[in-house]
Amino acid sequence: MRESAGHDLLFYDGGCGLCHRSVRFVAAADRAGAFQFAPLGGETFLARVPPERRADLPDSIVVWRSADGALLLRSDAAVHVLFRIGGAWSVLAALLDAVPRRLRDAGYDFVARRRARWFPRPEDSCPLVPPPLRARFVP
Length: 139
Hints:
Blueprint: E1 8-12, H1 17-29, E2 35-39, H2 43-48, H3 51-54, E3 62-64, E4 71-72, H4 74-85, H5 88-98, H6 101-118, H7 131-134
Parallel strand pairs: 1-2
Antiparallel strand pairs: 1-3, 3-4
């Protein structure tokens, strides 16, 4: 399946342990199927994100919002994902959204600088995706 209208794209760094775990979490928690997943630097990323924007992007999770084509980075991406997942996660998103972006991003950056130590790279960086989720992963 190719990208579908209404699906936000979550771009991820496949070699990052935290990103790997985050994608697994979102895929499991996103029961409505609001997200599709694609690797940073993959075909979909290169087609969707203009070259001038690519240089400034972090090598973590980036969300392309289908409603307006905006690229969400750092804590904005995390808050958006939690809102879209819904349920109790949207309550956490609302609480985080009430925190000024500067402080949220400082917390995000703190974890990002330590992610390799705290979340080692998965041994199998290309795990087998269960059949029901395969259609949500695009190149």
